[in-house]
Design goal:
alpha/beta; three-stranded antiparallel β-sheet; 25% strand; 12 strands; 8 helices
């Protein structure tokens, strides 16, 4: 008489995320045992939150912050006590192809935004593993939200289970939500190069135009005398 028994072995681990179910078929007539084994993968779900919810995760649920931006943006402004593990690192390779790409970058993105020419950090996942266990609660941040999403996918694939990201990045974080270190606010850390210079020039010109408008409005006679001094073409 043949019998069928079912046993379930729990093989869930924070590193592999695998659950294993075994079905054991006993055939008493032939004296043979056949074991069928099936593995189920359980993927962790990445939690995408806004800046306010991110602050709550840190202050109330004990999430640790991992900043994956490049060195320049991190030095401009970063959340105090965060861990800096860049997803991309500066590319200093000197092969002909890289030299051409770096020059093109420096003439456009580097010139306008003040950002270095980078490449994927081959040690990113390993660096995070050296600082955190797979069951750690981690909030990943970048400037716009794209790099943090990519970093979260890499860590999820490596077995990390409790990962959160700020949807629109640090550019959406309001002043005062986090303790910040650096020379500027978090939302402005992505501004550099000519974009930053242009912003300052626009601010100065805007101030001059406002002052001129107020002067003409409240002192029309003096303004008319000044305009009369301007040589006509």
């Amino acid at each position: 008489m043949a019998g069928i028994s079912c046993c379930c072995s729990s093989a869930l681990s924070s590193r592999s995320n695998l659950g294993t179910i075994s079905l054991r078929f006993n055939n008493t007539h032939r004296g043979r045992i056949t074991i069928l084994r099936k593995s189920l993968r359980i993927n962790a779900e990445i939690n995408y939150v806004n800046g306010e919810e991110a602050k709550r995760l840190v202050t109330e649920e004990g999430y640790s912050i991992v900043d994956v931006r490049d060195r320049i943006q991190y030095e401009r402004a970063h959340i105090k006590s965060c861990s800096h593990v860049p997803l991309f690192v500066e590319n200093k390779d000197n092969d002909p192809g890289t030299i051409v790409k770096r020059q093109l970058h420096n003439n456009f993105s580097g010139l306008f935004y003040g950002l270095p020419f980078t490449k994927p950090n081959p040690e990113f996942v390993e660096s995070v593993k050296n600082q955190f266990s797979p069951d750690s609660k981690i909030l990943i941040v970048c400037q716009e939200g794209l790099r943090s999403s990519g970093a979260a996918n890499k860590l999820e694939a490596a077995g990390f289970q409790n990962i959160a990201c700020i949807t629109s990045g640090l550019q959406s974080v309001k002043p005062g939500w986090f303790d910040v270190e650096g020379s500027t606010e978090l939302q402005d850390a992505g501004k550099g190069g000519l974009v930053q210079v242009q912003g300052k020039i626009s601010a100065v010109l805007g101030t001059i135009l406002i002052c001129a408008y107020l002067f003409i409005t409240f002192f029309p006679d003096q303004a008319e005398k000044i305009l009369a001094l301007v040589p006509s073409s």
